[in-house]
Amino acid sequence: TKLKVTMVAWDRYDATVITAVNNFLLKVWNSSTGQLLHSLCGHDDEVFVLEAHPFDQRIVLSAGHDGNIFVWDIDKGTKIRNYFNMIEGQGHGAVFDCKFSPDGQHFACTDSHGHLLLFGFGCNKYYEKIPDQMFFHTDYRPLIRDANNYVLDEQTQQAPHLMPPPFLVDVDGNPHPTRYQRLVPGRENCKDEQLIPQLGYVANGDGEVVEQVIGQQTNDQDESILDGMIRELQREQDLRLINEGETLPNPPLNRSHSVNGG
C-alpha cells in the first residue's frame, strides 16, 4: 500500500512536526534535523485533524474517521487521554474538526452527524439549558448569482452578509422559543415580537410541501423589521458618501430587500 500523508501540524513553538499517515499512525519529527522522534499508535482509521495546544508545546490533539479523539504528549510519545464519539443507535461518528479554546482548558469538535462536542473542565449546567437540536433556518439554503456575478440568497434575493440574523430551529425546521432566539448575535436585545419567525409553505427536493421558517416578523409595509434597519443604515451611508463627493458603487441587479422575495 502506498503511504500518503493526510494531515500535517506544527507544535506551538515549531520544534516538532506531526504527520498523520493513511496507515493510521502519527509520526513526530524534529523540525530542525528531520529525525523521527515517535510513532503514535491508537487510531484505526484515517486522521484528518491535528491540533496543537495554544501554549503547551508538548500537547497535540488528533481525531479522525474512527470517532476517536486523542490528546498526546509528544515529548514522551504517550497518550494522555482518549475519547470515543459513540452515538446511541448509530454507531460512532467520524470527527471532522477540532479546535482548542484560547486558554487551552477546553476544546470543541464537530462530527459527521452534525454534533458539536465540547470537552473541558467544570460542569455542563450552562449547556444543559440549550436544546439538543440547534440549526439556523438559513442553513443549506441555495445560492444564486446575479447579473454582476454577486452571490445572492435564492429565496430572499439578498446578499448573505446583508441578511438579518437567522432564527434557531430544530432539525425539522420548527423555530425554538424566543428565549433561545436571543442567543443569536444581533438578536440579544430584540423585543419578543421581533423574535417570532414568519412561517410559510415551500416545496422541498422531493416535491412535498412543508412548513418552514421563511423570514421574520414584518411591519405594516410587509418589510422585515431588521431589513428596514439595514435599509436605513445603507441610506445614511449613501448620503454620507454623496456629501463627501464619492461615487456610489453600482448595486447588484435583481435584488429585493423584502425577506419574502417580493
From TrEMBL:
- Recorded protein name is BRWD3 protein
Superkingdom of origin: Eukaryota
Mark the WD repeats by their residue spans: 40-82
> Which lineage is the organism of this entry classified under, starting from the top rank?
Eukaryota, Metazoa, Chordata, Craniata, Vertebrata
A Pfam family assignment? WD40
What biological process terms from GO does the record include?
A: cytoskeleton organization; regulation of cell shape; regulation of transcription by RNA polymerase II
A single Gene Ontology CC term: nucleus
Q: Gene3D superfamilies recorded for this chain? A: YVTN repeat-like/Quinoprotein amine dehydrogenase (2.130.10.10)
- The segment annotated Disordered runs over 243-262
Keywords from UniProt, A to Z, are: Repeat, WD repeat
Q: Where is the composition biased (Polar residues)?
A: 253-262
